[in-house]
Write a structure and sequence with these properties.
The protein is α+β, with helices and mostly antiparallel strands. It has one domain (16-87): Alpha-Beta Plaits (2-Layer Sandwich), CATH 3.30.70. The chain contains three helices and four strands; from the N terminus they run βαββααβ. A four-stranded antiparallel sheet has the order 2-3-1-4, covered by helices on one side. It is globular, with a radius of gyration of 14 Å.
Length: 97
């Protein structure tokens, strides 16, 4: 039986200066909630030292269903409200488990 591929998201968000403190304040809860989700293998959001306001994102989920469940939860979260309107620059790929 073939195992479903992991779903990997990588990329960044560029946060305007006037919204950075709110993002920084909300980030620990967002990370904690995401890492507790079933199927989350890894989840990192790190502020880029070379690009002010850029937050690099890396996520890995066991399969498409886990990734989709994360996306659904996130869309109705405080994080979604706090980051509303900030463009995401993400790539989502399937990789062997």
């Amino acid at each position: 039986m073939t195992q479903a591929p992991n779903i990997v998201l990588t990329g960044h968000i560029d946060v305007p200066e006037e919204r950075r403190e709110a993002i920084r304040a909300a980030l620990p809860a967002h990370i904690q909630l995401t890492r507790a989700e079933p199927g989350c293998l890894s989840f990192l959001v790190v502020e880029d030292r070379c690009h002010p306001g850029r937050f690099n994102v890396s996520e890995r989920f066991t399969d498409r269903a886990a990734f989709d469940a994360h996306q659904a939860r996130m869309k109705s979260s405080d994080w979604a409200t706090i980051t509303a309107g900030i463009p995401r620059h993400y790539t989502v790929t399937e990789v062997p488990a």
